[in-house]
Amino acid sequence: MKLPVVIGGAFVVGLAGGTVMGMRHAPAPAPAPADSLAVARAPAPAAVLSHDTAAAAAKPDTAAPAAAPPPAATLDTARLAATLAKLAPADAVELTTRLTDDELEAVLRHMGVNSASAVIAAMPKTRAQLMSKRLLGGPK
């Protein structure tokens, strides 16, 4: 009776020690890729459009302060995922073109495996690769 208890205790201590050491030496997670749609959505700053930065620096800033961006609309991911799962993959991809990568990832995580894989297969190659990498990276 004493031997199984000692072996069980040694196993638990070894498992805990291995886990702690593995966590201390774990590789740093890769940075998340930039949103593929952010460039198309973001307006160019006025300073970038000005070719004469010295003249722009000499002028006093008389422009009105930038307005705060409108609040982001909340996305019901579970409901959208159920709707997209009922559509043909090509139609679902057409509806997802306006979603950011974060929103699309959340929707795909709510879909079933077969539905999500069909939608990813119908996407343009670059976005399909990005979504696959993000989904394989684990939950956020």
Describe the structure in brief.
With 140 residues, this protein is mainly α. It has helices at residues 2-24, 38-41, 46-49, 53-58, 77-86, 89-96, 101-110, 113-122, 125-136.
List keywords for this structure.
elongated, single chain, 140 residues, mainly alpha
The poorly predicted ranges are 47-53, 69-73
Helix content bin: 55-70%
Strand proportion = under 5%
β-strand number: 0
List the total number of helices. Answer: 9
Radius of gyration: 25 Å
Largest sheet: none
The whole-number mean of residue pLDDT values reads 74
Principal-axis shape: elongated
Structural class: mainly alpha
Explain what the structure shows.
With 140 residues, the protein is mainly alpha-helical. Helices cover 62% and strands 0% of the residues. The protein is built from 9 helices and no strands. The longest helix is centred in the N-terminal third of the chain and has 23 residues, at 2-24. The radius of gyration is 25 Å and the shape is elongated. Mean pLDDT is 74; it is low at 47-53 and 69-73.
Topology, element by element:
Layout: H1 2-24, H2 38-41, H3 46-49, H4 53-58, H5 77-86, H6 89-96, H7 101-110, H8 113-122, H9 125-136
